[in-house]
Specification:
By secondary structure, the chain is α+β, with helices and mostly antiparallel strands. The protein is built from seven helices and eleven strands. The longest helix is centred in the N-terminal third of the chain and has 22 residues. The termini are close together.
Length: 254
């Protein structure tokens, strides 16, 4: 298992270098590298089977505070232009609320203050970007499972879609995970990073942390979580912004 994980990470890093890695500034550059794209697509099924079959609910490695990165790079969207978001930002997100709906029995609207009332999980983990860089940071927020238990998923729900406030390349950013990752103990909705409320460049006021997957799955600026039975018909139908527009694998397990 460790060899499989290591091999994938190394090939991603090799792909980044082959594409001029040290000069890369965004994930979109790698969409032009056929080696990386082909490998990500071919490895999707293998990694999903090995992680789910062999690792089960194993936790991603957690680190000590002394091991945290002195700086944590931000990429993707660094700011949100949407006027509604800007109003919430100016108000300190005091009137902002997360919407949870779709295939649930009890749709929710949860203000940031309510999210902070759930039992909180703090975890120091490594963020691995498909570009080939990594950083270790501390994240705090409620487990996604706690929200789903409150909303009560309907039996036909299979995926969670995370709708975001930002546009990337003029298109809405979104991501999705299945219920295995949704209920994993380390899948949280982080409102704090390194002991402080999230900065805008890191996805304020709320971002997904799904620690066993590559960085592009960690959606920033999350405004709505929608439970669905299938991903077809949602935006490009492949389950995420990069999956639709960059040929990235939907399952990005590491």
């Amino acid at each position: 298992m460790s060899k499989l994980i290591l091999s994938r990470r190394r090939l991603i890093q090799a792909g980044a270098v082959g594409a001029g890695g040290l000069l890369l500034s965004g994930c979109d550059r790698l969409t032009r590298d056929p080696k990386v794209l082909d490998f990500l697509g071919q490895a999707e099924d293998l990694h999903r089977v090995t992680q789910r079959g062999l690792a089960g609910d194993a936790l991603a490695r957690e680190f000590a505070e002394s091991q945290m990165s002195p700086t944590f790079r931000a990429n993707g969207s660094l700011a949100v232009a949407d006027p509604v978001y800007r109003t919430h930002f100016a108000q300190g997100f005091s009137r902002w609320a997360l919407r949870v709906d779709g295939l649930v029995t009890h749709p929710l609207m949860l203000p940031l203050t309510a999210l902070k009332q759930f039992p909180q999980r703090t975890q120091i983990t490594r963020h691995d970007c498909v570009e080939g860089w990594s950083a270790i940071g501390k994240w705090t927020g409620p487990r996604l499972a706690a929200l789903l238990d409150l909303a009560r998923l309907r039996p036909e729900a299979r995926y969670l879609v995370f709708h975001c406030a930002d546009l990337y390349g003029g298109r809405p950013y979104y991501e999705s995970i299945d219920l295995v990752d949704a209920f994993h103990p380390q899948t949280i909705l982080a409102w704090a990073m390194n002991g402080q409320p999230l900065e805008e460049q890191h996805g304020a006021p709320l971002r997904l942390r799904v620690e066993r997957q590559l960085g592009y799955k960690h959606a920033k600026f999350v405004t709505r979580i929608e439970a669905v039975a299938a991903l077809a018909g949602i935006y490009g139908g492949k389950g995420g912004y990069w999956e639709d527009n960059g040929r990235y694998a939907w399952y990005a397990g590491i």
